[in-house]
Input
Amino acid sequence: MHVRKTLEFNVRGPACVYISEEDQIIVPGLSILEITFTEASEVGEITVRNYYTAWMSVYIKYVNVHTHVEYAPGE
Output
C-alpha cells in the first residue's frame, strides 16, 4: 500500500530572472524557487498549489545514495 507523508524541506526564492539584450534589460516574468529536502528521501510524487501561474516546469537534481556521486539529468 502506498502511504503519503509530508517531507521537511527548505525553500529559497523566488528569484526573478532578467534577460540582458544589448543595452536594455528585459523582465519576462519568470521566477525560480529552489526546494531542498532536509534529509535524503525517496520522492515519488510532488504536489504544489499554483494560484497564479499559467505553467510551470520541474527540474530535479539528485544524489545516488549508494555511491555518493551527484548526478543531474541532461548534464
